[in-house]
Design a protein that fits this description.
about 20% strand, alpha/beta, 2 domains, TIM Barrel, about 30% helix
Length: about 400
């Protein structure tokens, strides 16, 4: 028994002191030395002058005079790359680039700074951006600015947009009185691929209808005009089962006042430019209401456009109202893909041809379905061999007088 056990009070034992053992100093020193050696080895092997700073890597097939193998490219806007000239400094000659200044990019060009991954040396080069549309520009005399953007108007000299944007008609050689057929393919502008496919496959005489909702609808419409097509703006109108069946934002409604509907019409008109007229999207209820439709068609005539009734509503009042407003008007005779199968589309095209031969002209409308585009394109290529003249929609419009 220990001495402390005899001298300690009864029932109480002395507290034992715990000893904390620390690692030996040589062990700590060895670990630090190993860490430092690994860090130095990484720095030597990596050879990264930027110390791990995040960098955007862009592949560039560009010939450089200083270093042929750049490993890093940082893209920056060209508008802010060029340093402002110092006050009082003489400008550099027009055919030379100031030293240590990035090359100024021309319109639709991008300045890219190439950074050498080994030396950190920078090189500024200019690369072309996406090709700009080269469609015929819209003359400002046909444009009126509104809070919703530019909308069509009749020029001061009386020229209508429908006439200014119409495509010429080339008669068949030796057949000046050949029956005329106008084909309209609708639903373009939402899908870029579908729109590009229609523009590429359909002859320029085929009229294209654009829905005003796609992000690139203005550029796609310009591309269609560049390809020789007349274009129409599709206006969403109220069907009987609205809103369960909704044509889209800014739909014209029978429950709105004429000024409210015209305001919506302006919002739709401002989405693209260069169209020869308007056509309905759905609208069985709206086109059967004279109080609702008449102000819209009056506005259409006032702005020098034509109106195309797609023929889907047998109760549409568009024809009668157009006549009262001296509005150039077209009514579709055949919906070509109401049953979108190859056999039914071919039958509809046969009916269209028969109507053209009996009356002298006919109008067919279809959606931009792949099967529709394929069969319409094939039929259009053979139309001249059958003695039929394929024309844009303005060539079959019943002309209205200016109001």
């Amino acid at each position: 028994m220990a001495v402390d056990d005899l001298t300690a009070p009864l029932g109480r034992q002395p507290k034992r002191r715990r000893k904390i053992r620390l690692p030996a100093l040589p062990t700590i020193g060895g670990a630090l030395a190993l860490f430092l050696a690994i860090f130095v080895l990484w720095a030597v092997v990596a050879d990264d002058p930027f110390g791990g700073e995040p960098m955007a890597v862009v592949p560039a097939n560009i010939q450089l005079t200083a270093r042929p193998d750049p490993s890093v490219a940082v893209v920056r806007p060209n508008a802010t790359d060029a340093a402002a000239p110092t006050a009082g400094a003489s400008p550099a000659p027009s055919n030379q680039q100031p030293a240590n200044q990035p090359a100024m990019a021309a319109p639709n060009m991008t300045t890219i700074t190439i950074i050498d991954g080994k030396t950190g040396e920078r090189h500024d080069v200019v690369v072309p951006g996406p090709a700009a549309a080269t469609s015929p520009p819209i003359d400002s005399k046909f444009v009126e600015m509104t809070p919703h953007g530019p909308v069509p108007k009749i020029a001061a000299d009386g020229t209508r947009p429908a006439d200014a944007f119409a495509r010429p008609v080339q008669p068949l050689p030796g057949k000046p009185d050949a029956p005329r057929v106008a084909l309209i393919v609708e639903g373009l502008g939402v899908s870029g691929n579908a729109t590009a496919d229609a523009i590429a496959k359909l002859p320029g005489a085929v009229t294209l209808g654009f829905v005003p909702y796609g992000n690139d609808v203005a550029a796609l419409a310009a591309r269609a005009r560049e390809g020789g097509h007349e274009i129409l703006l599709q206006v969403p109108m109220e069907p009987f089962d609205y809103p369960n069946n909704d044509p889209g934002p800014q739909t014209l409604l029978t429950t709105l006042t004429p000024p409210q509907n015209i305001d919506r019409l302006y919002a739709l008109m401002g989405r693209l430019q260069g169209y020869v007229g308007l056509t309905n999207t759905m609208g069985a209820k709206f086109t059967a209401s004279e109080d609702s439709l008449a102000p819209i068609l009056h506005e259409t005539a006032k702005r020098g456009l034509i109106y195309v009734d797609d023929g889907s509503n047998p109760r549409s009042l568009a024809g009668r109202i157009a006549g009262a407003n001296n509005l150039s008007f077209v009514h579709a005779d055949v919906v070509l893909d109401s049953v979108p199968t190859p056999a039914e589309i071919d039958k509809a095209l046969d009916r269209l041809e028969m109507t053209a031969r009996e009356r002298g002209f006919a109008v067919g409308v279809a959606s931009a379905l792949p099967v529709s585009i394929e069969h319409i394109a094939a039929w259009a290529r053979a139309a001249a061999n059958h003695g039929l003249l394929l024309v844009p929609v303005t060539a079959v419009a019943a002309k209205g007088k200016q109001i």
